[in-house]
Amino acid sequence: MKERVAVPGMRPLLIVWLGQMVSLIGSGITGFALGVWVYQQTGSATQFALIAVSSVLPSVLLSPVAGALVDRWNHRRTMILSSIGAALNASMLASLLAVGWLDIWHIYVVAAIASTLTAFQWPAYIAATTLLVPKQHLGRAGGMLQMGQAIAQLAAPAIGSLLLEFIQLQGVVLFELAAYFFAITALLSVRFPITKPSPSGKTEKSSLLREVAYGWSYLTSQSGLLGLLIFFAASNFLSGIVGILFGPLVLSFSSSVVLGVLLSIAGAGTLIGSVVMSIWGGPQRRMHAVFTAMLLCGVCILVTGSGTYIPMLGAAIFLFFFCSSVLNICTQVIFQKKVEPSVQGRIFALRGTITSASLPFAYLIAGPLADFVFEPLMLPDGPLAETLGQFIGVGRGRGIGLMFMIVGALTIMVTAIAYQYPRLRLVEDELPDAIPDDLAPSLSE
pTM for the complete prediction? Predict the structure, then answer.
């Protein structure tokens, strides 16, 4: 294999990023269209929700093993094979549609296969990004990755609804296929750096199980990074409660049109935050940004639950998603800088598993708490109607508003407690960078 020295710059990442963004838009459009198709066929919200479960659960369960395999494999080849697998998955869906054999259970299988491939694709993408750009540009690179997700999140429902109307579901799937081929072409046009295993990593190559375990032991040996992971997981859990109940909160006093506008404002907050970070790169002291962003998120959640004034909700939800974007990017960059490149696949997969697993837990407890505890408390004749009801109102949705205020207060409290832990607060100072400033990676053919 020939090797040559990489020229530092953003161009290789730009090419890969463009391909991955188009791929995300394509898969997002198909996911939206399949959800609509299932709901139109069944009229069942449960069947609709099962698509989301099928799209998330395999990735969560497989990520630790997938991360260990990603560290063994060539990152570029892993991404190409994952994209080819996704294209074949979409081709199977298109074939079922063409012969009229598509059934509901096929959708769950297709979604589960796509989720399985994502478990390999995403850790390889993030790990490769660490070496595709110079260390000083990791903040900008993180902003680009977040921006690609935000653009897909904004574009997929709008484009998907139009395509579903004019070219039907089979045309949507063919559009997804074209998006995957674009992503594969982009990957084929860029050389990826070769990741050299660390001495500690070499000792763990005897078995896959030991490699998975090594990812966890590596993380637990770095108390600052472990604290950051726990802090981020707590943020995800609290945000998950807010995310799942925001729709019912708004619909309790307004229309679906207003909800759509507010969700678009939320997407704009994510997108603008990502653009700002991709241009700026973030502050030198990223932990300061992490704590500040989390604190502001707590304030925004508290404000969102306190009233029903739409402009105030719009401002709060925009700032919340802007700050969440900064929080996510700064956290990712800290991990990229402090974790050895040879184990980043495992660490990012483990990080994704832990943080993603907090979301289903949040979803499971949020609904029952709202329906059976907080909503009854804030009814006109409820126990808190004469006290808190005087400040935030009573009736439908005000119990959810009270939940938001409690979650906001908890977010502020968690931030204050986390700040007191010196290993977390000083993680950037106490842990040396795993990537040298003058890194010049060799490129694979």
Answer: 0.71
